[in-house]
Amino acid sequence: MALGEHSYGKSGVRLVAVTRTPGRHELRDLTVNVELHGSFHGAYVGGDNAGLLATDTMRNVVYALARERGVDEPETFGRDLVEHFLATGPTVTRARVELAEHPWARLEADGAPHEHAFQRGHGGTRLATVSGDGERVEVEAGIDDLLVLKTTASGWEGFLRDPHTTLPETDDRVLATMVTARWTYAGAVDYGETWRGVRDTLLEAFGDHHSPSVQFTLHRMGSAVLDRHPSVQRIHLSLPNRHHLLVDLAPFGLDNPNQVFQATTEPYGLIEGTIERDGETR
Hints:
With 282 residues, the chain is α+β, with helices and mostly antiparallel strands. 23% of the residues lie in helices and 40% in strands. The chain contains 5 helices and 12 strands. The strands form 3 sheets. The protein has an 8-stranded antiparallel sheet with strand order 1-2-3-6-7-8-9-12. The protein has a two-stranded antiparallel sheet with strand order 4-5. A two-stranded antiparallel sheet has the order 10-11. Strand 4 and strand 5 (112-120) form a beta hairpin. Helix 2 packs across helix 3 (74-86) and helix 4 (191-207) packs antiparallel against helix 5 (214-228). The longest helix is centred in the C-terminal third of the chain and has 17 residues, at 191-207. The chain is globular, with a radius of gyration of 23 Å.
């Protein structure tokens, strides 16, 4: 009986880093997952832990590097962590670090940005995944929990029907989804500026057209990102359809001209797709 692919690491490391400068504090709120791949056969099969770095140590490294090197962009901090773990010993051949940045927005005081007070922000959770094997480093960026909705300019018509189909066609419906996106870069980029630009492009493209389907909207959003951001090589989008069902008010003697809806979370349609530049298909 042979040991197949295996890895281990530390997940859910919560890190809040404050950069203190005169008159202004900067805040980074991250959840970090560390995953190591390598030659750990002795531990799995023989119970020999000599080649294993304790997962508790991995957690400590996250905090120590945050102090030593600072936390600027999540992608940059992820590269620092990958570099560190690859240097821990010959048993580690590949390191992968996932980072999720939770948004905070600066408060205002007398119409000006507050020095050190924040409120929970919005606009989605920023994601970054960095992996490396000592020869090359791969960086993937992304966004999660980006909840968007439009009250019209969406329909669902002309779809395939069979004996089990009960859904009526409509040319005017609420379209709501929780956008999850992952994208990869070609070459060096300004991570922060590009991430904000991609997010803004996704939001603009969601609302700038009549949507005949979530599939069409997904393709439009991904294509807009590639058109406007040459450094983005490909983007994968996941758009769950958060259904808003028109409530039948006829039993109460009332009409319902697309005004009263029941919001549902389950079950939901799940539409996914990857938009790539020509010649980049994997």
